[in-house]
Amino acid sequence: MTPHVDLHQTIERPRVVARPRRSRAAFTLVELLVVIGIIALLIGVLLPALTAARKQAATVKCLSALREIGVAFNLYANFYKDAFPVVRQDTPDDGITPQNVQNTYYTDMILPFLAKNGKMNFQIGTDRLAFDQTRKTVLWGCTEWDGYRQNQHLGGTSTYVNGVSIFESGYAMNFWPTYTAGFPASPTAKPPGTQTQMRWGGIYHGKYYKRSQWTRPSERLLMADATLWLLGFGPTSGVIAQQETGRVLQDSTGQNNIDRYRHGKYPPRGPGGTTGLFTRTGGKVAFNVLFADGHASTLHDIREGYKAIRMRYPGP
C-alpha cells in the first residue's frame, strides 16, 4: 500500500526575500540654487555676444540691401541714357507750380528694377496691398528700421498707410554730385541749385546727372541710412551737429539726416525740442553707406559720412 504523501509538506515553497528599498536621488535646495546661479551667469556672459551677433547680422543684411539698390541705380542708367535718377521729379516741371500729388521720387524710378510689383510714395495712395508689397523689397531692406509710426510723429494721414509713413524707407539719396574738396571754396557754402540731382519746383532746379559725372565714385556717397527720405546736408567749417529724430529736414549748418547710430547704439534723448535731441554721451556711431561706384561699407565716424558728401572733412 502506497503511503500517503502530503505534497504541501514535501515541496518547500521558495522564500521571497524582501530587497531593501533604494532611496530616490533628488536635488537639494542648495544644489538647485547653485544650478540656477550657473545658468544665470552663463546667460549674462552669452547674452551680450548674442546681441552683438544679431546686430552684426542686421548690419550685413542692410549692406546687402544697399548693394542691390546700387545695382538698380545702374540698371536704371542703362535704360535712360546713362543717367541716374533725380531725388524728386515734380509734375508739372515748370519751377512755378510744385504739386505734391503726382511727383515722382527716386524710389519710384528704381523700384521696377527691384520688384515685379509694388509702388512707392504718392503712387501708393491708400492702397495697403501695394505698400505691403513695397515693404518686402530691399528699399525697406534694413531690419533695424521699422518706419515712422503715425501715432508717434506729426504728419497728415495721406502720407501714412497701415500707420507707417510711405516716404521713409530708412534710406536717403544724396543729391549733391558736384562737390569737390575745393568747390565751393567756402566750407559753409553749397553748389548752386542748378547743380543738384533734384527737380524740386521753387526750391531746387537740378538735372539728371550721368554716371560719368559723379566724380570720385568710390568716395562719393550715393545712399545712406537716414532718418528722412531726403538727405538733408548743411556744410560747416566746424562741429557736426547732434542727431535729431522725427520727420524733420536737417539742413542747417553742420546738420544732416544720416542715421548715424542705426547699427551702433543710440544715446539717450535730451530734454529739449519737439523731436528730441540726442546727447553726445553713451552713443556708438555705426551706419551703412552705398557709394556711387556700387560698393557699400559701414562707417563709424560721422565725419566720414560728411566727407563722403562734401569730399572733405569739416574745417576751414
Walkthrough of the structure:
Helix content is 24%, strand content 9%. The chain has helices at residues 7-10, 29-79, 106-110, 128-134, 302-310, and strands spanning 88-89, 104-105, 160-161, 164-165, 171-173, 199-200, 204-205, 221-225, 287-291, 296-299. The model has no long low-confidence stretch (mean pLDDT 82). The longest helix is centred in the first third of the chain and has 51 residues, at 29-79. It has 316 residues and is α+β, with helices and mostly antiparallel strands. The protein has one domain. The chain has 5 helices and 10 strands; from the N terminus they run ααββααββββββββα. It has a 4-stranded antiparallel sheet with strand order 5-8-9-10, with helices on both faces. Strands 1-2 form a two-stranded antiparallel sheet.
Number of domains: 1
Radius of gyration: 32 Å
Beta content comes to: 5-15%
Q: For the report, how would you describe the main beta sheet?
A: 4 strands, antiparallel
Rough outline: globular
Structural class by SSE content: alpha+beta
Task: State the share of residues found in helices, binned by percent.
Answer: 10-25%
Strand arrangement across the biggest beta sheet: 5-8-9-10
Report how far the terminal alpha carbons are from each other.
Answer: 138 Å
Spans of at least 5 consecutive residues with low confidence: none
How many H/I helices?
5
Using DSSP, what is the number of strands? 10
**Mean pLDDT value:** 82
Instruction: Spell the H/E element sequence.
Output: HHEEHHEEEEEEEEH
